[in-house]
Amino acid sequence: MNASSGSSGSPGPGSPGPGLYALKPWYARKLSGVRGALARRGVSPDTLTVAGVGCAAGAAAALAWLPAPLAALPVAVLLAARLAFANLDGALARDTGRTTRRGALLNELGDRAADLAVLAGFLTLAPLWLVATAALAATLPSWVSLAGAAAGAERLNGGPVGKTERCALVLVAAVSGWWVPVLAVIAAGSALTAVTRGVRLWGELGRLGLSGLSGRSGRPETLGDAGQPQAPGDAGQPQAPGDAGQPQAPGDAGQPQAPGDAGQPQAPGDAGQPQAPGDAGQPQAPGDAGQPQAPGDAGQPQAPGDAGQPQAPGDAGQPQAPGDAGQPQAPGDAGQPQAPGDAGQPQAPGDAGQPQAPGDAGQPQAPGELKGLGRR
């Protein structure tokens, strides 16, 4: 069959136990020629497994329908074939490289089905409860061995009443007709075999240090495996403060921080917090930039005379007293009407540039003035 082993389903032929199972290596050597012929013909290991179950059913039919000792020969031949197929299926799978997990499963199911089929031949020969008890007990040794293998121990085989010994007892019943005594021995011997294997496995697993595995799963697990305790910080485990998604110390990212930390309430004067008067963007004392100022400050109402404010007369740009620059002046002031004789103003006769009285210099004189000059 496509098992990963022989009839045991383990990597090797299994550990030889007491009883007739010790003859298995000898039996396998005798079947080597048959195994080679099957391999050359391309026979499937699964076919051998199914054939073994068929042989067990044939032996049960011969036991039930034929009287002892006539049933002995067909029972002997069919049970021998049943054991041969149980040996060949795994060996053929290993020789041809056709070992599979499905083959291992089919191998175990085939062995249990063959055991039950053989004992079913006693249904018409012995009480039902005894047949049922023997059938149940016959499966116990295999369940114990499988449990030990699953825990990491070697697969145990053999007696005192294993598969081979049960087949021999059935043959005894077919020869002698001792149906009830044989069934009782099969039941008791199978239970004893299960206990014996259990004790051996318990000791072996203890030596291997496998019996204390977490969950008794049968395989060592390392720290951090699914369902095992993990170190702090592993996925889904409590973490130290400051790890991702765990409470952090004040000031860590996303945790409450001390005043003044980024995004936390700050002391007055910190960035974005209420500040003392005079700080940037806060109400300031009079005279600070952008705040109401005392008179005379820039942009605030000023006292008279300050820049841009109404000034006293005489201040720049304000009405001035007469005589001030640009204001009406008293006569005689610069640019103002002056009294006669002032510069640029009409002058009295005789003033410079003004019509003079007769006799003044350059003006027509009275008769007699020029004559006097001529006498001299």
Write a short abstract of this structure.
With 376 residues, the chain is mostly helical. It has helices spanning 24-30, 32-41, 45-65, 72-95, 101-119, 128-150, 163-176, 179-208, 369-375. Helix 4 packs antiparallel against helix 5, helix 6 runs parallel beside helix 8 and helix 7 (163-176) runs antiparallel to helix 8.
Q: Supply the number of helical segments.
A: 9
Distance between the termini: 181 Å
Task: Report the average pLDDT across residues.
Answer: 72
Helix-strand string:
HHHHHHHHH
Largest sheet: none
Q: So what's the overall shape?
A: globular
Radius of gyration: 65 Å
Determine the fraction of residues in helical runs and give it as a percent range.
40-55%
Number of β-strand runs: 0
Strand content: under 5%
Low-confidence stretches: 1-15, 214-227, 313-317, 321-326, 330-335, 339-344, 355-376
The computed structural class is mainly alpha
